[in-house]
Amino acid sequence: MKKLLLNLAVVFSIFAVTSCEDDGGSLTINQDIDYGNGGIPAPTTSTLSGFVLNGENKVLDANVVYSLNGPLIVKEGGTLTIPAGTQIIAQNGADVYIAVMQGAKIMAQGTASQPILLTAEDKTPGAWGGLILLGRAPINSGLTATSEIGGFNYGGTDPNDNSGVVEYVKVEYSGGAVDAASENNGFSFYGVGNGTIVNHIESYYGSDDGVEFFGGTVNANNIVLIGNEDDSLDWTEGYSGNITDVYIRHEGTKYDKAIEGDGYNPDLGINVDPVFYSNPTLTNVTIEGLGSATDVQNQEGINVGSYEGVRLREATKATFNNIVVRGFGRAFQIKGNGSEDTSLTSGDHVLNGELAVKGKFEDVTTKVKNASGVEFEESQFINIDESANGTNVNAWARSWASGL
């Protein structure tokens, strides 16, 4: 590999490329040390890709800047340890991602003063894949399913499954798409169990969803989602964890919903007995839109409807506590089902008290649009609480998150 003579001011923009040629081999790390002018040492740089195999614990080095040049896959029985302060900078491509398979673990333990950064050489949304965890917790599309990216197995019968630790981790410019049906997110949690620790994470300017839960039971707290071009927070396939302290902010000209929640995946249906639906609990949530008068247009420039904060559909249940929604034409929409997989809708769950919101609204024209096909009063869904304050993002994220 060619030596790099790097000035510290530009060290994170130039990397050597070394590929992993053996698909069945282990993790590839090629290191090269060089020193800048004036006796100041430049950081070590390494290319990174390949596999962490069963029985391996691959420990990265916070003093090394890694260039991710392909998929990095942690196989069953393997562990990837990423120390606080580590930086991994991805080369362009939807097939550049980190995936932690069923039975594997990631130990990514940053701190407020030394967060872990997963970013891209090309500072544009969709430049690379993102971080993918796959576990053995229940999903409602079947006993198991396969992920959009990589076709990896996920799902099972262990709600307490443990995929490791993800804390103080920032993912930037992720969401690269293989095709219209196979899209990366910032963080993808596929059937991840509640033995996994997830806290203080950020998805910044991704081209698809910031965080998506595909079933599973994992709990997550202290989440920052800024500038994501599709849904900032998404769940489907029977996800049922607790999500606490969430800050969502729309920026730029591309965005969809701040939150989109599905009770099941309409493309897969519900294939479990007994039937269950997504049922997360969200506490301390602040959602900041671009203003209630914002026009929403498709790529052809045609107005496609009111600027909307949260869409709930496919019979999802959910409980929102202490939520503040500001700057949307419509705060919530409750939709009917997109298929005939179930007779219940999210509107039914409003009536039975299993879909409810407590919070307040600022610069919002319409609090809820009911398109579920089931009649209910607004007061049956929303409990106005003028004392609601959402989450104080500055208190727990100002020191480490991007864009604050």
Structure, explained:
The chain is mainly beta. The chain is built from 3 helices and 29 strands. A 16-stranded parallel beta barrel has the order 4-6-9-13-17-19-21-23-27-26-22-20-18-16-10-7. Strands 11-12 form a two-stranded antiparallel ribbon. Strand 24 and strand 25 (303-306) form a beta hairpin. The longest helix has 6 residues, at 346-351. The radius of gyration is 21 Å and the shape is globular. The two termini are 38 Å apart. Residues 1-24 have low confidence and may be disordered.
Provide a quick synopsis of the model.
The protein has 404 residues and is mostly beta strands.
The poorly predicted ranges are: 1-24
Provide a count of the helices.
Answer: 3
Q: Give the oligomeric state of the chains in this entry, treating copies of one chain as homo and distinct chains as hetero.
A: single chain
Number of strands: 29
Q: What percent of residues are in strands? A: 35-45%
Mean pLDDT value: 89
Helix content estimate: under 10%
Main beta sheet: 16 strands, parallel, barrel
Task: State the end-to-end CA separation.
Answer: 38 Å
Structural class estimated from helices and strands: mainly beta
What is the CA-based Rg, rounded?
21 Å
Strand order of the largest sheet: 4-6-9-13-17-19-21-23-27-26-22-20-18-16-10-7
Shape: globular
